[in-house]
């Protein structure tokens, strides 16, 4: 076939295509970007599934993330141990969900996880304050942030338990897609 690619086995590439929204070419391109972040760390042969993680400091400096106020949360949510350090699989998952090909429901699911700062499967008033502060890039006063949070909770807390479940959140972003960026 004249295919010199030996980074992955055929099966590995098939699996990555199944688990992401990417073509083989895009997967290879992302692999090389991953490898380029830490060339001494990431081998060019993945056929034996090396146990490698690229540190958050490098991931967070990528153009897609460096200006995103949620970059650390994003990396934490997609990393295996929640510390932001990423295996290649974590890395591909993250870019897959961030891609335009990912359906809105999937993006919403991960946005919920990103906004759930204390990882308890609910967005409480405190989580919401962190989220709104970051979404508005610190340009609002504490009072303004609290007002927005109150309003959001008021409108989106469908079962009135004072916090947003994933379901509350999904209903909310149908009306306010700004929360999905
Ligand atoms: Ca929470
Ligand atoms: Ca609720």
UniProtKB/TrEMBL annotation:
- Subcellular location(s) of the protein: Apical cell membrane; Cell projection, Filopodium tip; Cell projection, Growth cone; Cell projection, Lamellipodium
Topological type in the membrane: Lipid-anchor
Q: Name one GO molecular function term.
A: calcium ion binding
* GO cellular component assignments: apical plasma membrane; centrosome; filopodium tip; growth cone; lamellipodium; perikaryon; perinuclear region of cytoplasm; ruffle membrane
Q: Where is it chiefly localized?
A: membrane
Q: Which UniProt keywords apply?
A: Angiogenesis, Apoptosis, Calcium, Cell adhesion, Cell cycle, Cell division, Cytoplasm, Cytoskeleton, Differentiation, Lipoprotein, Magnesium, Metal-binding, Myristate, Repeat, Spermatogenesis
Keyword Transport on this protein?
no
Domain of life of the source: Eukaryota
Sorted alphabetically, the Gene Ontology BP terms of this entry are:
angiogenesis; apoptotic process; calcium ion homeostasis; cell adhesion; cell differentiation; cell division; spermatogenesis
SUPFAM superfamilies, from UniProt?
A: EF-hand
What name does UniProt use for this protein? Calcium and integrin-binding protein 1
Q: What's the source species for this entry?
A: Ovis ammon polii
Organism placement in taxonomy: Eukaryota, Metazoa, Chordata, Craniata, Vertebrata
């Amino acid at each position: 076939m004249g295919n010199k690619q030996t980074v992955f086995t055929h099966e590995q590439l098939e699996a990555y295509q199944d688990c992401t929204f990417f073509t083989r070419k895009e997967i290879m391109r992302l692999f090389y970007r991953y490898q380029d972040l830490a060339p001494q760390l990431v081998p060019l042969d993945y056929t034996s599934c090396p146990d490698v993680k690229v540190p958050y400091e490098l991931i967070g400096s990528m153009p897609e993330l460096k200006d995103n106020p949620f970059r650390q949360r994003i990396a934490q949510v997609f990393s295996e141990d929640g510390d932001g350090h990423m295996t290649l699989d974590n890395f591909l998952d993250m870019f897959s969900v961030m891609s335009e090909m990912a359906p809105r429901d999937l993006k919403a699911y991960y946005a919920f996880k990103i906004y759930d700062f204390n990882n308890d499967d609910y967005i409480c008033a405190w989580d919401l304050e962190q989220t709104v502060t970051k979404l508005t890039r610190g340009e609002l006063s504490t009072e303004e942030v609290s007002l927005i949070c109150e309003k959001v909770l008021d409108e989106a807390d469908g079962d009135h338990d004072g916090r947003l479940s994933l379901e509350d959140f999904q209903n909310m972003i149908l009306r306010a897609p700004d929360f999905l960026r």
